[in-house]
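Exercise 7.
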Amino acid sequence: NNIIEAEEWCKEQFEGKPEYSRRVPRTVRKGIAGTKEGEKETKEQRELRLGISLRRINQRDIWKKYQEGKEQGLSREEIKQKYGLREGEMALVERYERVIREYNLDDNLKNIMEIEEWCKEQFEDMPEYSRRIPRQNIKGIKAAKKGKKETEEQRELRLGKALKTFEQNNDIWRNYQEGKKNGLSREEIKQKYGLKENEIVIIERYERVREEYDYEDLNILASNIAEIEEWCKEQFEGKPEDCRRLPRQGIVGVKAVQEGEKETEEQREVRLGKALGGFKRRSNIWKNYQEGKKHGLSREKIKQKYRLREAEIALIERCERIIEEY
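Solution. The predicted structure, written as tokens, is:
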């Protein structure tokens, strides 16, 4: 009955709300004690009672045996037989498991879900190269203080820092990346590093968010290439092909513009020339694409071999077109 009521409580609180806001009833609330006999139970006391009842099930032998059997790959019937569990006990732990799975979400998963939602809010239907993940630093913006309403910038900052923490302090992320680097399959990674299915699911979701939205370096590159193309057109549109050229990377006597100064035409040219030269010298996507072409690979095979995204390929092709034309 307590599990049914706990499930009902979760639905009352979180039905129709974002998944990342879900949780199970708390077991401790500051200043809240259990209901005394004859008193009417408050909402806070009800939550406390339900939270404690869930925690007790987690500590019971039937739950521990059920989990042990699942880890060993046993079927429902095999678990019942091996541990002598009755049908009613099986139904109880299965219902408990469903409530925990649906509402007691891992903090990392909650963060990743909210980050995914934030990215969709900001960049849905926009060109891939304009996308990015939440920033970890925003000038002049500090974390929201407890009890205060979070601004949009503070929310972005919180989510950006959650991503950074996930990558830096998370062994499952590092192990997963190491396994992939060593060419291991999903199952082999699980076995080698002792990762659980729910941990793999979290990592894969995080990886998908990165894959779909982490285009920050590409944003800068796309902006530079668009400006280089614009500069070339301004200078050489309608002129003979033999007098065309790309922006120079150095002009005698011309230095980069200082902060607060207005950029001259020569400084703009040098900036764009250096951006183009730097991209060709340092960018792995450029080097990989050129290497693939040298080996006679098709566009699709280059994408697959070097794991290039469509937006990266499109940007390289645009860069190549500018070089060919000017």
